[in-house]
Amino acid sequence: MENLRDDVDINRAWKNIKRNIKTSTKESLVLHELKQNKQCFDEECLGFLDQRKEAEMQWVQDPCQSNVDNRNNVRRDASRHFRNKKKKYLKAKIEELETNSKIKNIREIYRGINDFKKGYQPGTNIVKDDKGDLVADFHSFFWLGGGTISSSY
């Protein structure tokens, strides 16, 4: 009985420690939200993506003709949905550019044009050691148990 009580107390203590660490880091660190690249990707798109993954898994597990047909139909529907969603998004962006042009909001016009021209450009997080040599990207550095880093990302 005492061993069970000790295990429960230890687990409860670790949960409290974990919760306290998370809340203190949220309060002390200034976290910024990364910019979402695809504003047209919403919950409905996630549903289509999940359906497509499920159909793919069924096809892999049992490659009979009915699963092949189901997979093809789901993929076609998902692609059609994503394409239509992207068209609506781009049409809305173009209308936004037109309204900015009409009200002479030059800065927003050029921001919108640059977004169209540049497209998606992924950010890079590079980690350098104290000597300034390139170590790795940010996430693999910490997963590999990296030491101190200089602020260079």
Order of helices and strands: HHHHEEH
Give a quick account of the main beta sheet: strands, pairing sense, barrel closure: 2 strands, antiparallel
Helicity range: 55-70%
Mean pLDDT: 77
- Kindly give the count of domains: 2
- Find the structural class using helix and strand composition: mainly alpha
If you had to describe this structure to a student in words, what would you say it looks like?
It is a single chain. With 153 residues, the chain is mainly α. It folds into 2 domains: 39-121; 123-153, no CATH class. The protein has 5 helices and 2 strands. It has helices spanning 2-28, 43-61, 65-102, 106-118, 138-143; strands at residues 126-128, 134-137. The chain has a two-stranded antiparallel ribbon with strand order 1-2. β1 and β2 form a beta hairpin. The radius of gyration is 25 Å and the shape is extended. 1% of the residues are buried.
Please outline what is shown here.
About 65% of the residues lie in helices and about 5% in strands.
Task: Describe how the helices and strands are arranged.
Layout: H1 2-28, H2 43-61, H3 65-102, H4 106-118, E1 126-128, E2 134-137, H5 138-143
Antiparallel strand pairs: 1-2
Helix pairs in contact: 2-3, 3-4
List the keywords.
disordered C terminus; 5 helices; mainly alpha; 2 domains; 67% helix; two-stranded antiparallel ribbon; 153 residues
